[in-house]
UniProtKB/TrEMBL annotation:
PANTHER family: 3-HYDROXYISOBUTYRATE DEHYDROGENASE-LIKE 1, MITOCHONDRIAL-RELATED. It holds the Pfam family NAD_binding_11. It comes from Streptomyces galilaeus. Residues 168-287 form the 3-hydroxyisobutyrate dehydrogenase-like NAD-binding domain. It is an enzyme of class 1 (oxidoreductase). The keyword Oxidoreductase applies. This is 2-hydroxy-3-oxopropionate reductase.
C-alpha cells in the first residue's frame, strides 16, 4: 500500500487532465470528478478512479485539488451541501489551482478554516504543454506548514514552485503573470505582421529573435502557432479575457497603473467579441492582422 495521500481532483479540463495523470504516474491514488463523462473515462484509462459527485470524490481524500475556469465555478464546487467544505474530512488540505480573484481565495480560506480544512491557492503557468510535461510554474498563497505538506504533490506537477505569501498571494502573482504573457503575445503578434509585410523570411526572423534579448518562453511556445496560423486552444482567449479582468480590477484596487495592460485587455476583449474566444491566446495575431487590413 502506498503511503502517499489520497487525492481528489475536481475539474478535468485542458490543464486538469494531464496534471491529474502526472500524479497517477507519480504513484498517487487519484479520484476525479468533472461534468464530462469522456474526461472521467480518460482518467480511469490512466489508472485513476472516477466519482459520481463532488461529495463522493472528496469523502476519503486527504488532499483535494481543484482546477476549474473561474471564481464562480470555485464557489459552486466549494460551498453548499454538495460542495467540498461540507463533505471533506476535517484536516483535509484543499489546493485550488484555478486562476481566480485573490479575494475569492481569501474568502475560501476563511470559510474552510471554520471546517478545519486547510487551503492553499496555487495557480499555475505554463499552459497545456507545461501541464503535460510537468514543468509548470506554481505560485502559492497560504501558510508555510500547508505549503510544506503540499510540496511533494507540487513536485509531481511543476518545476518552479514558490510560496509567494499569505492567502491570495498566489492569485495576485498569477494575475501579474497573465499580464506579462498577454503583453508579450501581443508584441510577438505585432512583430509577426510587421515582418511578413516587410517581406522577411518569418521562420528565420523568429529563430534569430528568439536567440537574443527579444527571446522569451512565449515566443518559444507560440512560435509554431504564429508560423502555421494554428490556434488550437492550449489556453483560450475566453480564459485570458477573464484573467485580464482580474488583473485590471486588482490593480485598480491597489492603485497601480497598467497603461499597456489596459490596451491589451481591450484587444483581447475585441478578439473575443469577434467570435475568436475559443481559440488559443496566440490568436491575438488575428486581431493585429485585422487592424493591418487583412480579411479573415
Amino acid at each position: 500500500m502506498s503511503n502517499l495521500p489520497k487525492i481528489a481532483w475536481i475539474g478535468l479540463g485542458i490543464m486538469g487532465s494531464p496534471m491529474s495523470e502526472n500524479l497517477i504516474k507519480a504513484g498517487y491514488e487519484v479520484t476525479g470528478y468533472t461534468l464530462e463523462r469522456e474526461k472521467l473515462d480518460r482518467l480511469t484509462a490512466a489508472g485513476g478512479c472516477s466519482a459520481g459527485s463532488i461529495a463522493e470524490a472528496v469523502r476519503d481524500a486527504e488532499v483535494v485539488i481543484t482546477m476549474v475556469p473561474a471564481s464562480p465555478q470555485v464557489e459552486a464546487i466549494a460551498y453548499g451541501p454538495d460542495g467540498i467544505l461540507e463533505n471533506a474530512r476535517p484536516g483535509t488540505l484543499l489546493i485550488d489551482m484555478s486562476s481566480i480573484t485573490p479575494q475569492t481565495s481569501i474568502d475560501l480560506a476563511r470559510a474552510a478554516k471554520d471546517k478545519d480544512i486547510r487551503v492553499l491557492d496555487a495557480p499555475v503557468s505554463g499552459g497545456e504543454a507545461g501541464a503535460v510535461e510537468a514543468v509548470l510554474s506554481i505560485m502559492v498563497g497560504g501558510e508555510q506548514a500547508d505549503f510544506d505538506r503540499a510540496e511533494p504533490v507540487f513536485e509531481a506537477l511543476g518545476r518552479t514552485i514558490v510560496l509567494c505569501g499569505p492567502h491570495g498571494s498566489g492569485q495576485t502573482v498569477k494575475a501579474a503573470n497573465q499580464l506579462i504573457v498577454a503583453v508579450n503575445i501581443q508584441a510577438c503578434a505585432e512583430a509577426v505582421v510587421f515582418l511578413e509585410k516587410s517581406g522577411v523570411d518569418l521562420k528565420a526572423a523568429l529563430d534569430v529573435l528568439n536567440g537574443g534579448l527579444a527571446g522569451s518562453t512565449v515566443l518559444t511556445r507560440k512560435r509554431d502557432n504564429f508560423l502555421n496560423r494554428d490556434f488550437t486552444p492550449g489556453f483560450r482567449i475566453d480564459l485570458h479575457h477573464k484573467d485580464m479582468g482580474i488583473v485590471t480590477d486588482a490593480a485598480r484596487s491597489v492603485g497601480a497603473a497598467l497603461p499597456v495592460g489596459a490596451v491589451v485587455a481591450q484587444l483581447v476583449a475585441s478578439l473575443r467579441a469577434q467570435g475568436d474566444g475559443g481559440l488559443d491566446h496566440s490568436a491575438l495575431l488575428r486581431a493585429v492582422e485585422r487592424l493591418s487590413g487583412a480579411r479573415l
